[in-house]
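Title: Comparing notes on inverse folding

I've been comparing how different people in this forum approach sequence design from structure. To keep things fair, I'm posting one structure and asking everyone to reply with a full sequence. Here's the target:
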């Protein structure tokens, strides 16, 4: 091993020792030893062979043994033992600027957070604020550090990228001579995660476009590559930017080719060749028409059978944000939200929604300040008071109740009966076998007081894979018991996955696009669930009518036993319909397919350095 590699191991040992709560002097010895080894004028191997390592200042007996073991065997027993004691993803978190080992230890031990994505989501849910030694400012610094860390990773959440992608597009469209310009690639398909920003542009001089790009704040490395008729740059977050230049007459084909997945473009090209069509047009619709197809929206161009659906007239109709009439799954300061109940209702009204479902965490979610029965009664009283004050927005009393490990709910039936709706969610024991996890969720769906299933696979994009669960069996259970399945529109989740939509639709499952909002700003996440709904409504040939894509119904409670229970259904059209007593707000696809994982980086000492003040 080289001295650099040995220093990296010693630094990691120091970090893990501190995380474990070991003697500070021992921690410092390994940290100091790493710097000493790295600054040696010769490789440690030579010193070990000559028996001179002990003579080096800063290298004691224990450290000498560790370095000798590394030199002779290429590993360290202590290092391996420490690695086995903690999730490997904790080392990813160690690279976050502003997050030192002490803070990380508190977060891991008290919240069970062990990955960057989980930490980011915990910040979004305000879970760090109440930890000892933390506060709102510390949480903000950590969140800023996470964003800085992610700039150097390969994948980014769509929601975190779209704003800067739009700023680049606006600058390009404003360039003199530009006739057409639009997003392409993953951005235009609204993929959950993206690796780059791609545009197609017709018109405008390259130098003018370069000048426009350089005028966008924090866009760097702008370059014109005339041999490929491309402009390249780096976005503010470090994403690669690629702008394809073309003439107006070929713009439609270049945009189509740069937008669709490889499978989609190849399938379409084969159809065009079979018809003897040269794909050259200014508009995409003309190319699809030449292939004998209706226009296929960008979000659907994945090569997942959309061409066959289009050919048979069964192409789904996408939901639009304006068709959504209200939201469920929202949190307030009663649990881990950052806004009061009244503030959430006012924000709902400001967004033009007609109803909101309040659903704070249940009592087992102690980490999120879950509600005991006395606080449930207090919240219901406040909801009644706010409802009188703001009568134009209907407020539904709900709860996000934990599904316990055996599938039971977190409250007895007499408590569940006091809510208008109940979201059942898994928040613990993600490591159950597929069979046990599936049985757990299916039992919860059989509970007569459960209205909908929340974030059904538990995934956190770019961070935590879905837990092992048979989603087809879960969807069958949801359909059998008449339960709603949530499309969690929080951009960190987007759960259910859109890929199982066809199966869900066949089973008659109904869905609700929910923001899982922990702040007033989080209410604006609903449109991110739009892509998940792409296969919900089809035009004809035995598929469900467009109205099945819900989210449009003005809700009214229907009597059920001793309480007012919210049931949801859809209008026959996407427009606003008269109130009815049965309802479901949305419909969209589920699934458990994995997204491209981040390649875990080994975090060296320089990655532990922080450009932000320690949190």
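Reply #1:
Here's my take.
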């Amino acid at each position: 091993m080289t001295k650099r590699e040995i220093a990296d191991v010693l630094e990691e040992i120091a970090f893990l020792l501190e995380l474990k709560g070991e003697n500070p002097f021992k921690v410092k010895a390994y940290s100091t030893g790493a710097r000493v080894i790295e600054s040696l004028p010769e490789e440690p191997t030579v010193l070990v062979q000559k028996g001179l390592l002990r003579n080096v200042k800063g290298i004691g007996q224990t450290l000498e043994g560790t370095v000798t073991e590394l030199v002779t065997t290429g590993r360290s027993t202590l290092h391996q033992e420490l690695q086995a004691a903690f999730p490997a993803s904790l080392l990813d978190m160690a690279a976050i600027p502003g997050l030192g080992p002490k803070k990380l230890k508190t977060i891991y031990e008290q919240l069970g957070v062990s990955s960057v994505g989980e930490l980011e989501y915990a910040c979004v849910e305000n879970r760090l604020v109440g930890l000892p030694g933390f506060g709102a400012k510390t949480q903000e610094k950590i969140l800023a550090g996470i964003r800085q860390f992610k700039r150097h990773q390969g994948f980014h959440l769509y929601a975190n990228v779209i704003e800067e992608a739009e700023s680049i597009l606006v600058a390009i469209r404003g360039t003199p001579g530009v006739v057409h310009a639009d997003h392409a690639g993953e951005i235009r398909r609204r993929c959950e995660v993206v690796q780059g920003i791609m545009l197609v542009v017709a018109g405008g001089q390259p130098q003018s476009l370069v000048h426009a790009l350089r005028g966008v704040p924090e866009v760097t490395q702008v370059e014109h590559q005339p041999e490929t008729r491309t402009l390249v740059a780096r976005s503010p977050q470090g994403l690669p930017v690629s702008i394809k230049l073309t003439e107006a007459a070929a713009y439609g084909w270049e945009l189509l080719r740069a937008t669709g997945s490889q499978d989609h473009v190849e399938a379409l090209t084969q159809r065009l060749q079979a018809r003897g069509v040269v794909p050259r047009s200014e508009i995409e619709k003309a190319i699809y028409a030449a292939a004998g197809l209706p226009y296929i929206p960008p979000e659907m161009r994945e090569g997942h059978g959309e061409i066959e659906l289009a050919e048979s007239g069964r192409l789904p109709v996408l939901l639009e944000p304006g068709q959504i009439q209200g939201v469920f799954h929202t949190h307030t300061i009663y649990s881990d939200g950052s806004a009061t109940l009244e503030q959430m209702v006012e924000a709902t009204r400001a967004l033009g929604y007609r109803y909101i479902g309040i659903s704070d965490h249940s009592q087992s979610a102690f980490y999120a300040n879950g509600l005991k029965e006395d606080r449930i009664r207090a919240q219901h009283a406040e909801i009644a008071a706010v409802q009188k004050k703001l009568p134009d927005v209907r407020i539904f009393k709900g709860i996000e109740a934990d599904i316990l490990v055996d599938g039971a709910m977190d409250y007895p039936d007499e408590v569940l009966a006091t809510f208008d709706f109940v979201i059942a969610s898994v928040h613990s024991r993600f490591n159950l076998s597929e069979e046990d996890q599936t049985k757990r969720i299916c039992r919860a769906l059989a509970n007569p007081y459960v209205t909908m299933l929340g974030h059904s696979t538990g995934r956190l994009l770019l961070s935590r894979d879905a837990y092992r669960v048979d989603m087809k069996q879960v969807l069958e259970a949801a359909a059998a018991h008449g339960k709603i399945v949530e499309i969690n529109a929080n951009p960190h989740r987007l759960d259910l996955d859109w890929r199982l939509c066809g199966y869900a639709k066949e089973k008659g499952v109904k869905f609700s696009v929910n923001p899982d909002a922990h702040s007033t700003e989080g209410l604006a996440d609903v449109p991110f669930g739009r892509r998940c709904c792409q296969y919900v409504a089809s035009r004809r040939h035995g598929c469900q009518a467009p109205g099945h894509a819900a989210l449009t119904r003005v809700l009214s409670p229907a009597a059920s036993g001793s309480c007012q229970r919210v049931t949801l259904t859809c209008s026959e059209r996407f427009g606003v319909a008269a109130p009815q007593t049965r309802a479901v707000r949305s419909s969209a696809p589920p699934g458990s397919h994995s997204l491209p994982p981040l390649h875990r980086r080994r975090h060296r000492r320089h990655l532990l350095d922080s450009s932000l003040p320690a949190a």
